[in-house]
């Protein structure tokens, strides 16, 4: 078994790579190390086992072609490399487009030319559904909810790209789907929602669960964009990696399919609820300031994960409370990694 992982030194990528190395799987990691702290994840991975590493930008089509041509025997390509922040996409939309849309196109073309039998698992986003303005939002128990979507947002929800990030990832999402239809590639599109866990170096504009945790433990300022009643269905990274496994193992079922992937209705968490949890754990109040809601932000997003459960037998194992506790423990035990 051989797996190529783009973005393999990132938070989710390093979690997946470590899992494959522990199983004795041959792994090829592609990462340009441009995101802060990916070098720390790469150093940690080198202690987990031996793998081939390429410090390569997915915007470099020739380089990606050469790597995949060298690994025509790859069984799977896990495409996680991306520009991941909405705010960054607003300030620099060209770079966002080139990484997310063009970079994904480069990966798909390299697979088509060199290893068309590989299963390609693509990390898309819930942002392809936009702000869901057509769905009325109500407040219940100090958090927002969408009553019309009891089980969460399904894969059949109309696409509505908001923000340059939503457009770039949405374009990539559609390319991944169409390469299965037009070229017969075995692609799987996972529209992921709020992933969190160990080895996540969250920052203010991306990875809010980790960012709040890191900031609370290390006394850094926290800003709530909006009133803090916004809700997400949080998913622990280990559970996401379980789904990656199932997509590869059950490629006959997953190929050509799209799945909404998050914690589902049973793992909803608002910003205020996370802060309250952290305050209980730390035994002190956590100061915060408020600012206006950011462009493209959704008041509520909860994924309907029933398709993945029905077709692949997957559902989250880690509840939000225990998952956050695991993250707190990891941040607390690795204080040196967060020194400014």
Describe the structure.
Helices cover 41% and strands 17% of the residues. It is an alpha/beta fold. The strands form 5 sheets. The protein has a 7-stranded parallel beta sheet with strand order 3-2-1-4-5-8-13, with helices on both faces. A 3-stranded mixed beta sheet has the order 14-11-16. A two-stranded antiparallel sheet has the order 6-7. A hairpin with a 2-residue loop joins β6 (138-140) and β7 (143-145). α1 packs parallel to α2 (38-46). The relative contact order is 0.14.
Give a brief description:
With 340 residues, the chain is an alpha/beta fold.
Unreliable stretches, pLDDT < 50, 5 or more residues?
none
Number of beta strands: 16
Shape: globular
What is the count of DSSP helices, taking H or I runs of 4+ residues?
A: 12
Using the CA coordinates, give the radius of gyration.
19 Å
Total separate domains = 1
Mean pLDDT: 96
CATH architecture: 3-Layer(aba) Sandwich
CATH fold field value: Rossmann fold
Q: Provide the CATH superfamily.
A: NAD(P)-binding Rossmann-like Domain
